[in-house]
Amino acid sequence: MARPIDSARRAELLDATMRYAAEHGVATLSLRPLAAALGTSSRMLIHYFGSKEELIGQALAAARPDIPALLAERQQAGHSPAEIATALWCDLTTGGEQEPRTRLLLEVMALAATQPDLYGRHAADAVSQWVTPLAHSLHTAGRDWRDALARATMLVSGLRGLALDRYVTRDRQRTDDAAHLLIRTATADGIAPAPQRSQLNGAEGRLKP
User: Fold this and answer.
1) Spatial distance between the Cα atoms of 124 and 116, rounded to a whole number of angstroms
2) CA 57, CA 188: separation in Å to the nearest integer?
3) What is the DSSP letter of 201?
4) pLDDT tens-digit map of 190-203
5) Which of 184, 131, 188 is nearest to 176 (CA)?
6) Can you give the pLDDT at residue 148?
7) Considering only CA atoms, which of 67, 44, 55 is closest in space to residue 14?
8) For the whole model, what pTM was predicted?
């Protein structure tokens, strides 16, 4: 008869796995050293999660920074899209509870480009959970949906890249300046909308004269 799952212990192991992965990375993660660090055995990890892949997948989902909650809180407080984007930048880069989660997310985004079968879904989910609520904020502020989605994508992808720059170089001033310039640009009025696909000239992607 299978041993019943201790849900509290399972949650504890999941949180510890997320923190371990954030510190050591997921690309070369294996069960035996993970289990030793967690004070358990690889057999018990399989008992709780079924497989290494399932454990990693659930840890990545749990590690995702709770950007939708942050954005919802700011929207309810009546903050502008620029203020919301600034709060997002601060949340990504000021350390604290979100830092290990952000580091892990950045690694997964990089791995998804070369190992899409393993990490592509997690990376795509993360992008959607960031871009969509920010686009809704911009849309609520009066922009049409396509423009709002483009600006939200610009903000999320740009700030994520700058967060990686910050973690690698530790250059706070330069990355802060670049982030605030990006936010001002992406939320400013008077930016021309992206051209329709019909305006592009063949596979070269050149604009028609």
Assistant:
1) 10
2) 38
3) E
4) 555 555 555 445 44
5) 184
6) 93
7) 55
8) 0.75
